[in-house]
Amino acid sequence: MPVFAYRGFGADGRTVNGVVDADSARTARGKLRASGIFPTDLNEESTAAERETAAREWLPSLWRHKMPASDLALLTRQLSALLGAGVQLVDALGALSEQSARAATKRMLSQVRERVREGSSLADALTAHRDTFSDLYIGMVRAGEQAAALEAVLDRLAEYSERQSEFVTKVRGAMTYPIIMMCVGTAIMAFLVAYVVPQVATIFEQQHAALPLATKILIGFSAIVTGYWIPLLLLIVGTVAGISAAMATPRGRRVYDTAILKVWYIGPTMIRIICARFARTLATLLASGVQLLPALDAVKGVVTNGLLKDAVEQSRESIREGHGMGQTLAQSGLFPPLLIEMIRVGERSGELERMLERVADNYEREVTHSLSQMTTVLEPVMTLAMAAVIVFMMLAVLMPIFQLNQLMQ
Fold first, then answer.
1. CATH of residue 325
2. Nearest Cα to Cα of residue 116 among 1, 108, 53, 12
3. Which of 208, 247, 354, 380 is deepest in the core (most CB within 10 A)?
4. Is 334 a member of any domain?
5. Is residue 289 left, alpha or beta, with left meaning phi > 0 and alpha meaning psi from -120 to 50?
6. Domain-ending residue, one of 49, 64, 79
7. Domain encompassing residue 50
8. How far lies 44's CA from each of 3, 22, 102, 131, in Å?
């Protein structure tokens, strides 16, 4: 259905703007007048929306625009505050749309508001914007609407989004310095090998001097890089494309998920990260009134490893047959003993939500500590590695120069 952006005056005389869905401009004006809005400007946005949708479908998922978790948490918190103050949902969505500085967010909120005004539930209205709202988010909103506790659910969603944003920020912050250092070091080495070494090699060739082994190795490596850089680039691109294509297949993804869990230090750290997200998300769903089986079905979306995801699915099927979640997760042999034991304690005591919160806090602290240790070790190791390469290159260049000086004397 076409989307029309409008600008006009409300019943109180204030300037209002937003979007409205309608079959035609005439129908859009009628809908606006029926809601007390007198439009002064009405433009169809369907063409732009279709181009934007096509672009989102064409771009890889990593390049698609997604609302940051911190912005989503703030939006959720503001909506909860407005509802808690007694503001109607349609008016609250309109207020958030008007105050939003991002054009995309303003358009999205206006469309959600229009669907809610037409009689849709908030959860149904959010399903049209899955780039912004995950299945987990929509499921919790739906549960809150069904339990008449939307404000409380939105508060929990905001807290969950804030915690996830903080956790991801810590992980990225711990990895930023090593990655930047690696990129800068690689760029420096590439410049020396591709530009400096060939010029030095030309000088040595003109002198017809016997070169040390280190110099011959460096010159040979530089000749390969500068002479065959196109095939090397194609080889790298082809390798990356091949790995990406293999990862896109179920078998390839399975092999990767199995291998990554066996890597020293990285595997256990990844398990802790996934378990922290699993426990935090499941606790949030249970606290919002979602039943255990639907909650486990929704929580699979935050379990990024296929083996662990299959274990969660098997646990869900076993729970349906009457078994406990702790027992079924333990059978997979993938989840840490602490998580299994805390789940068992929570099931026996009836405080599963609280136990999951505790284990999520514990794993988040462990991940932060592990990443801090890894960064502490990586920094000197990478510095020493770069220093060793630079010393080798300096010796390879300076040793022939010293020999030439001795011959000239």
1. 1.20.81.30
2. 108
3. 354
4. yes
5. left
6. 64
7. 1-64
8. 6, 10, 19, 22
Structural domain count, the chain = 2
Structure tokens at 181: 């250092």
H-run or E-run covering 9: strand 3-9
* Cβ(83)–Cβ(92) below 8 Å: yes
Taking CB atoms within 8 Å and a gap of at least 24, the contacts of 63-69 are 64/131, 65/104, 65/131, 66/131, 66/132, 67/105, 67/132, 68/165, 69/161, 69/162, 69/164, 69/165, 69/168
3-class secondary structure, 21:
strand
Instruction: Give the pair of three-digit tokens for residue 23.
Output: 């079959």
Dihedrals phi, psi of 123, to nearest 5 degrees: -60, -45
Report the candidate in 186, 90, 180, 190 with the shortest Cα–Cα distance to residue 385: 186
Task: Determine, yes or no, domain membership for 55.
Answer: yes
Q: What are phi and psi of 293, to 5 degrees?
A: -65, -50
Neighbours of 175 (CB within 10 A): 14
Extract long-range pairs of 395-403: CB within 8 Å, 24+ residues apart: 395/214, 396/212, 396/214, 396/215, 396/217, 396/218, 397/197, 397/200, 397/215, 397/218, 399/212, 399/214, 399/215, 400/204, 400/209, 400/211, 400/212, 400/215, 403/209, 403/210, 403/212
Among all chains, which residue has been given the structure tokens 């912005």? 71
Q: Which residues contact residue 313 at a Cβ distance below 8 angstroms, ignoring those fewer than 6 apart?
A: 300
The values of phi and psi at residue 18, to 5°, are: 165, -160
Domain end residue (candidates: 328, 351, 366): 366
In angstroms, rounded to a whole number, what is the distance separating the alpha carbons of residues 3 and 48?
10
- pLDDT, tens digit only, all 409 positions of the chain: 566 777 777 777 777 777 666 667 777 777 777 777 777 777 776 444 444 444 444 444 434 456 777 788 888 889 988 888 888 888 888 888 878 777 778 888 888 888 888 888 898 888 888 888 887 788 778 877 876 778 878 887 888 778 777 777 777 777 777 788 778 878 877 887 777 778 777 777 776 767 778 888 888 888 888 888 889 889 999 999 998 888 888 888 889 888 988 888 888 888 988 888 888 888 888 887 778 888 888 787 778 888 888 888 888 888 888 888 888 888 888 889 989 999 999 988 888 989 998 998 899 888 888 877 877 787 788 788 888 887 887 788 777 777 766 656 5
Do the domain assignments include residue 285?
yes
Residue 109 lies in a domain: no
